[in-house]
Design a protein that fits this description.
Blueprint (H helix, E strand, L loop, with lengths): L3 E10 L2 E4 L2 E2 L12 E2 L8 H8 L31 H6 L5 E7 H6 L5 E9 H10 L18 E3 L2 H12 L4 H15 L6 E11 H4 L2 H17 L4 E8 L1
Parallel strand pairs: 7-8
Antiparallel strand pairs: 1-2, 1-9, 3-4, 5-9, 6-8
Length: about 240
Amino acid sequence: MGCDIHAGVEYKANGEWKAILFPNKYFGKYDNEPKKSARIDIDRDYCLFSILANVRNSYGFAGCDTGDQFTFISSERGLPKNITTKCKKTACTGDHSDTWVSLKEILDFDWKQTATRRGVLSAVQFEEWDRCKEFRPQPKEWCGDVAGNGIMHISEDEMRSYVNDIMRGARGAEWTANMEKLKADSEWPSKTRKYTRITWEQSYAECAKQVWTKILPYMLPLGAEHGYKNVRLVMNFDS
């Protein structure tokens, strides 16, 4: 089962905590949804969840291995006792892992440290990753695990040898034809679909890009006005 974040941004002004409100995309679609909500729109991202709140740290769906554990900022601190009513009722509507982090903690965190990540690739996904990994260590597509009839898990070296045997020396139309063969061998109903688990390294900043695109743009202006300790992200999760 997947896991999603329910979070809001609060700031302290004149001794009182206040919530940022956003247009509610669910207003009119579901009963009892307010026109505005304190919930910030953050996509499902287990790297981000791990770093912010120690949620789904190093594992994904059905407990599959997604890499070594991240160092995290918070873990089940509980929601602040003085949380705003808006955030409590319209943002933090999940059912577990209540916590919060201040803007100062986010800014002081070591985002340059490196994470070890793991994922499972098909032959086609592996071919592209292996060809591009020097300048793009993260594969374009991968999954936590694959199981079922006809699935063969092989080592990275075995996958490289298998792909090279098919693709070696191919150019132009021949390369396209060979890629189609590799793709056909990688998909159902092929009876010998080959997968391999790879490992790659990434900075924490790269792993949790929504910090820079969806969280800090709201928090930083408030921090400049009210102080970095007086701005916080309150959150919980569902699964």
